[in-house]
Structures are given as structure tokens and as C-alpha cells.
Automatic annotation (TrEMBL), chain A:
It comes from the Bacteria. Part of the ABC transporter complex GltIJKL involved in glutamate and aspartate uptake. Probably responsible for the translocation of the substrate across the membrane. Gene3D superfamilies: MetI-like. It comes from Candidatus Proximibacter danicus. Residues 20-215 form the ABC transmembrane type-1 domain. This is Glutamate/aspartate import permease protein GltK. The chain crosses the membrane at residues 20-43, 55-79, 94-111, 156-176, 196-215. The lineage of its organism: Bacteria, Pseudomonadati, Pseudomonadota, Betaproteobacteria, Candidatus Proximibacter. GO terms for biological process: amino acid transport. The gene is gltK. Belongs to the binding-protein-dependent transport system permease family. HisMQ subfamily. It is found in: Cell inner membrane; Cell membrane. InterPro entries: AA_ABC_transptr_permease_3TM, ArtM/GltK/GlnP/TcyL/YhdX-like, MetI-like, MetI-like_sf.
Automatic annotation (TrEMBL), chain B:
It is found in: Cell membrane. The lineage of its organism: Bacteria, Pseudomonadati, Pseudomonadota, Betaproteobacteria, Candidatus Proximibacter. Belongs to the ABC transporter superfamily. CDD domains: ABC_HisP_GlnQ (cd03262). The keyword Transport applies. Signal peptide: none annotated. It is a peripheral membrane protein. Residues 2-236 form the ABC transporter domain. This is Amino acid ABC transporter ATP-binding protein.
Length: 224, 242
């Protein structure tokens, strides 16, 4: 029978921690940029300009219809070319940058759908009330619609963030050492792949599961 | 104050308003009534440009509502509107509901807006509710807050779109009392309502609408005394039976 040997983990902890930081960096960047860009896309999609609305819809549908792994690879192949064209050949390691860009743009498509539904969940009369008080369309959106929309959709946004956190492990395809990538490399190096992957899986589980418990508690509070 | 001239409006093929013409003088209270689907709410929403209309003209204190060059936000900032479903902002406290447009639209400072807000809250008898959220208030209280919110903007006239239709019967009077008081103070008011008691008490004129047409536009006494159209007579007979 295979005998477990966990001894290579303690020594690798600093390395694994560094990987975890990369995972968090990608996750948090994608959440922040994804929500901001996703909000812009959502507002454009329901906005008055039909051409821009079509473009936004096209963007969202494109990213939602392509596997994430491919998007990551595309950006790894395209972004460097673009950067080289602008800054010359001396651009250093762009794996992290291209992963950040890929995730942010990809997640924006998903976030925009959540945000669009959130905006549409606010009763129409609220817009009328804002406008009737003399607010501009922009003020009504910013002060009346969006705060209510975000309150309604916080649980969904957080759930999407948890999925995103797990999906960041896909950056292994471009050789970026995130938490999963690092665990894999350490396991490979020490011939202890099974232990390292079990360990990494346990960490992903603990983080994701605690986060989803938090979402449940938040949800209960919002329903009240 | 409000001039409505030959206003027509279509939703696609369907005509909701047909050649509506009427005026509301300064300090006049005009009640608009009629069966549901007669276009009365649509007409009142055209007055502050919440609903666009395809032909005709509406002039509010010298400003043409339908003119694309008109700054609608500016116009609306001094035309108060009260909605059937109150439409208070649920994510803000009562006092913030009253101050937000004063600050963001009229550019008043915080203290000024707050003082004004508290003054009008006091007038509708809800000063102690200031720190609460709309969800914690009864329907009647919410509607009174909505009236106070509109008054904070120092409106030149007030539009009421079925302000008591969503209320439980025992709460209707507290809202009507506030409206009666406003009317007595000389506020120019256009009210879509089925409350004929209110119309009798304070209205100068009553407009009766049916199928998008203004069927009857008469002084209160004429309307209740000798309505000319059959349709208005039937309507009155029905709602006055109860």
C-alpha cells in the first residue's frame, strides 16, 4: 500500500504561502476590476444607446461562451505581443500580468450579468421617484438604483467570487506559480504529489467553505 | 401654471391619450378621475415628462415639457410628485430620503437640508421617525413622508398619482388630511384620485377621463351637480353608492 509521507510540506510552507498570495492577488484583482467593468457593461447593456448595448452584449456573450482555460492561454499569447509592441522586448515575466488581465476581463462578463439582474430587480418606480425629484439619469443610477441593486445581489457576487477563487488554479496552464501550481511543483520535486495535492485541496476547501458559510449568514441577514 | 394643449400619446399602435386639453391655474386644485385604464395616470406623468408624448404641448410655468431643449431635471426639481406606491428610497433613512435631492439637486448644504427636512417631517407629524427606514413605517406614514419629501424641494405645484390607492382604508384619511391642508394653503395641485370626498372638500375643478379622452372638465359644483356626459354620470353613480 502507498504510504503517506507529509514531511516535505513543513519546509515548503513559505513557498506555498507565496503561491497562495498569487492566488489571492489574481482573485481580488478579478473581483475588483470585474465588478467595476461589469457594472459599466451592465449599464451599457440596459442603456439607451443601442449600438453600445449590442457591443456590450456581444462582449458578454463571447466571454461566457469560451472556456476559461482558453481565455487564459489567449491572453498569455496576445498580451505579451501587445506589450512588446509598446514597450519593446524588455518586459520581464508577464505571466502574472496576462493572468490578471484575462481573469478580470473574463469575470467582468459574469459579473455584468449578475449586476444587470440586480439593477432590473429594483422596481421601476424608484427610477421615476429619483427623476421626479430632479435627479439626472446618472444621479438616479448612482444614488438610487445601484445601492439597492448591490444590496440585493451581494450574496450572488460573493458566490461568484468563491467560484473565481477556485478557478484561478487554471493559471497552471501558463506555468504561473499560484497556490495550486506551487503545490504541484513541490510535490513533483519531492516525489510527493499525492500528499501535496491533498493538502492543497484541503486548503481550497477550508477557504471556500468558510466563505460560503459567511455568504449564507449574510443572506439570512439580508432576507430579514 | 400648467397648460395641457391637445396632448396625444400612443404605445405603439394603441392610443392612450387623445387630444387632451386643460389648464391648472395657480393655487387651483384639479382632481382627475375616471375608470382604470382611462389614461389619467399617464396624463399626469406627461406633465413632468416622466412619460413622453408624441403630439401636443404641455407648458409648466412657461417651460415646454415636450421641447427636447428643455432641461427636464431642472423642471422636475420644482414640480413635486407623489406616487401610488410611495417610492421612498428603502436603503436610506427617512431624513436622508428628504435631504438627498435637496443636497444633490438643489445644492443645499447638509444643515440647511436637514432643517428643512425636519420642518416638513414635523408638518406631516412624523418628526420622531426621522432616523428610521421606510420599511419600518406604515403605508400611510410612508406616503406622508413622500409628500414631505416633495415639499422639501419648494415645488411650484404638486402632482399626485393615486396617492391613496395602495393604502389600507384606515390610513387613507391621514394622507388626505395632509393634502387638504396643502390645498388650503394655496398649493397648486393636480390629483389623480378616486376620493370624491376629497374632491368635494377642496377641488376647484374635476376632470373626468375615459379611454384616453377628457370627457368632462367642469367646476366641482357642476361636476357633482349636473355632470353632462352619460359616462361621468354612470361613473359617479357607481362610486358614490359605496
Amino acid at each position: 500500500m502507498y504510504e503517506m509521507d507529509w514531511s516535505s510540506i513543513p519546509g515548503a510552507l513559505p513557498l506555498l504561502f507565496k503561491g497562495l498570495l498569487i492566488t489571492f492577488e489574481v482573485t481580488i484583482t478579478a473581483i475588483v476590476v470585474g465588478i467595476v467593468w461589469g457594472t459599466v457593461l451592465a449599464i451599457t447593456r440596459i442603456g439607451p444607446n443601442k449600438i453600445l448595448a449590442k457591443l456590450a452584449a456581444g462582449y458578454v456573450n463571447l466571454f461566457r461562451s469560451v472556456p476559461l482555460v482558453m481565455v487564459i492561454l489567449w491572453f498569455y499569447l496576445i498580451v505579451p505581443q501587445g506589450l512588446k509592441a509598446i514597450f519593446g522586448d524588455d518586459i520581464g515575466d508577464i505571466r502574472l500580468t496576462s493572468a490578471l488581465v484575462a481573469f478580470a476581463l473574463f469575470e467582468a462578463a459574469y459579473y455584468s450579468e449578475i449586476i444587470r439582474a440586480g439593477i432590473q430587480s429594483v422596481p421601476r418606480g424608484q427610477v421615476s421617484a429619483g427623476l421626479a425629484l430632479g435627479m439626472t439619469q446618472g444621479q438616479t443610477m448612482r444614488l438610487i438604483l445601484l445601492p439597492q441593486a448591490f444590496r440585493n445581489m451581494t450574496p450572488l457576487l460573493l458566490t461568484q467570487a468563491i467560484i473565481l477563487f477556485q478557478d484561478t488554479s487554471l493559471v497552471y496552464v501558463i506555468g504561473l506559480s499560484d497556490f495550486f501550481g506551487t503545490a504541484y511543483k513541490v510535490g513533483d520535486r519531492d516525489g510527493r504529489l499525492v500528499e501535496l495535492l491533498l493538502f492543497a485541496g484541503a486548503i481550497y476547501f477550508v477557504i471556500s467553505f468558510s466563505a460560503s458559510l459567511l455568504v449564507k449568514r449574510l443572506q439570512a441577514r439580508f432576507v430579514k | 401654471m400648467i397648460e395641457i394643449k391637445s396632448v396625444s400619446k400612443w404605445y405603439g399602435e394603441f392610443q392612450v391619450l387623445t387630444d387632451c386639453t386643460t389648464t391648472v391655474q395657480k393655487s387651483e386644485v384639479v382632481v382627475v378621475c375616471g375608470p382604470s385604464g382611462s389614461g389619467k395616470s399617464t396624463l399626469i406623468k406627461c406633465v413632468n415628462g416622466l412619460e413622453p408624448f408624441q403630439s401636443g404641448e404641455i407648458i409648466v410655468k412657461g417651460t415646454s415639457v415636450g421641447d427636447p431643449k428643455t432641461n427636464l431635471s431642472k423642471l422636475r426639481s420644482h414640480v413635486g410628485m407623489v406616487f401610488q406606491n410611495f417610492e421612498l428610497f428603502p436603503h436610506m433613512t427617512i431624513i436622508d430620503n428628504l435631504t438627498i435631492a435637496q443636497e444633490k439637486v438643489l445644492g443645499r448644504n447638509k444643515e440647511e437640508a436637514r432643517d428643512k427636512g425636519m420642518k416638513f417631517l414635523d408638518r406631516v407629524g412624523l418628526k420622531i421617525q426621522a432616523p428610521k427606514h421606510p420599511g419600518q413605517l406604515s403605508g400611510g406614514q410612508q406616503q406622508r413622508v413622500a409628500i414631505a419629501r416633495a415639499l422639501c424641494m419648494d415645488p411650484i405645484c404638486m402632482l399626485f398619482d393615486e396617492p391613496t390607492s395602495a393604502l389600507d382604508p384606515e390610513m387613507i384619511n391621514e394622507v388626505l388630511d395632509v393634502m387638504v391642508e396643502l390645498a388650503k394653503e394655496g398649493m397648486t395641485m393636480m390629483c389623480v384620485t378616486h376620493e370624491m370626498g376629497f374632491a368635494r372638500k377642496v377641488a376647484n375643478r374635476v376632470i373626468f377621463m375615459d379611454h384616453g379622452l377628457i370627457v368632462e372638465d367642469a367646476t366641482k359644483d357642476d361636476f357633482f351637480g349636473t355632470p353632462r356626459s352619460d359616462r361621468a354620470q354612470q361613473f359617479l353613480a357607481k362610486i358614490l353608492q359605496h
